[in-house]
C-alpha cells in the first residue's frame, strides 16, 4: 500500500479516475503533469490492477483507463481525505465542495464507527498491534518515491498530498498514532534516513499536524483528524494485499473489546455510507 499510494502523482491520478476521468486527455487536462510521468503512473496502476486499459479505437490506436473493484474500494479513504481537507484546510481556492449523502439528500461529514458494536470510534479507543506478517521493516517499501513538483494547489487535496504522498511520511504518521514521539524513535524503528525523517517532521509541524515541544513531536487535533484516513487506507491494504501468514496489523476496539473494523456513517442521518451515495454538493 505504501509503495503504491505513497506517491503524490499516483494518488492524484486515482483521484481523477474516481471522479470520472477515463482518457489520457482527461488526466492530462485535470492535472499539471508531464506526459512521461502520466504514462508511467497509468502503466503502474494498470499493472497493479487499479485501472483497466481498454482500447476503444484502433486507427489511430486510442485507449481508456477504467476503474476496477480494487480502485473503487478506495472510496472510504478518499472520502475521509475530502472531509479532513474541508474541516482543517481553509485556504482552498476555489473552496472544496461539500459532500452530499444521496440517501438522505443532506450535506454531511463521514463518521468512523466500529462495525462490531456500531458505536463511534477514534484513535483514543482503537488499539493496534503487529499481526503475524507485520514489522516496521517489512512495511516500508524499498522503492524510492519522488515528491511531486509543481504547484502546491494541484489537485483537490493539496495539503493531504503533501502530508501523505510520501512513503516515509505515511509511516511516520502511523508511528505517531501508536505512540512514537522522539526523533530517534522514528529514525531507528523505521530505519529511515535522518534527512527524510527531519524533512517529514518539519512538514507535519508546518501543516499543524504535529506540534514540537520538549524534544517530542505530538499529534495535534488536526493530526488526530487523520485517523479516518489512516484506518481506511490500512483496511484497503489488508483486503487487497493479504499475506499468507495473516494480517500485518491487528486492531481492537477497547469500548466493546472486539476486533475493530471501521465503517463510515453519515453524521446527518446516521446511515451507513456507500461509495455510490456520495456526491458533490
Structure report:
By secondary structure, this protein is α+β, with helices and mostly antiparallel strands. It has a domain at 74-224: Arc Repressor Mutant, subunit A (Orthogonal Bundle). The chain is 41% helix and 19% strand. It has helices spanning 2-5, 8-18, 24-30, 35-47, 69-72, 75-88, 136-139, 158-164, 167-177, 183-190, 194-206, 221-224, 227-240, and strands spanning 51-58, 61-67, 99-101, 106-108, 110-114, 126-130, 210-213, 216-219, 249-253, 258-259, 262-266, 278-280. The chain has a 3-stranded antiparallel sheet, covered by helices on one side. Strand 3 (99-101) and strand 4 form a beta hairpin. Helix 6 packs antiparallel against helix 13. GO terms for molecular function: DNA binding. Keywords: DNA-binding, Transcription, Transcription regulation. It holds the Pfam family HxlR. It comes from Mycolicibacterium agri. Residues 1-93, 154-245 form the HTH hxlR-type domain.
Amino acid at each position: 500500500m505504501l509503495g503504491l499510494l505513497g506517491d503524490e502523482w499516483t494518488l492524484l491520478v486515482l483521484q481523477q479516475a474516481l471522479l470520472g476521468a477515463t482518457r489520457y486527455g482527461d488526466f492530462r487536462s485535470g492535472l499539471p503533469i508531464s506526459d512521461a510521468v502520466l504514462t508511467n503512473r497509468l502503466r503502474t496502476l494498470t499493472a497493479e490492477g487499479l485501472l483497466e486499459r481498454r482500447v476503444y479505437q484502433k486507427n489511430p490506436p486510442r485507449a481508456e483507463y477504467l476503474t476496477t473493484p480494487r480502485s473503487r474500494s478506495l472510496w472510504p479513504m478518499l472520502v475521509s481525505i475530502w472531509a479532513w481537507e474541508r474541516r482543517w484546510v481553509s485556504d482552498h481556492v476555489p473552496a472544496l465542495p461539500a459532500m452530499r449523502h444521496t440517501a438522505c439528500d443532506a450535506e454531511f461529514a463521514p463518521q468512523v464507527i466500529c462495525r462490531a458494536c456500531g458505536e463511534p470510534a477514534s484513535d483514543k479507543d482503537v488499539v493496534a498491534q503487529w499481526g503475524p506478517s507485520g514489522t516496521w521493516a517489512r512495511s516500508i517499501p524499498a522503492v524510492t518515491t519522488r515528491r511531486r513538483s509543481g504547484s502546491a494547489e494541484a489537485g483537490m487535496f493539496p495539503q493531504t498530498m503533501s502530508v501523505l504522498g510520501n512513503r516515509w511520511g505515511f509511516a511516520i504518521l502511523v508511528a505517531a498514532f501508536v505512540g512514537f514521539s522522539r526523533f530517534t524513535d522514528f529514525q531507528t524503528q523505521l530505519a529511515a534516513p535522518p534527512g527524510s525523517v527531519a524533512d517529514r517532521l518539519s512538514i507535519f509541524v508546518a501543516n499543524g499536524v504535529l506540534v514540537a515541544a520538549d524534544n517530542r513531536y505530538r499529534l495535534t487535533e488536526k493530526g488526530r483528524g487523520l485517523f479516518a484516513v489512516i484506518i481506511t487506507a490500512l483496511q484497503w491494504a489488508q483486503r487487497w494485499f493479504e499475506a499468507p501468514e495473516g494480517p500485518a496489523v491487528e486492531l481492537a476496539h477497547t469500548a466493546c473489546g472486539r476486533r475493530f473494523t471501521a465503517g463510515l456513517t453519515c453524521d446527518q442521518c446516521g446511515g451507513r455510507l456507500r461509495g455510490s451515495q456520495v456526491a458533490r454538493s
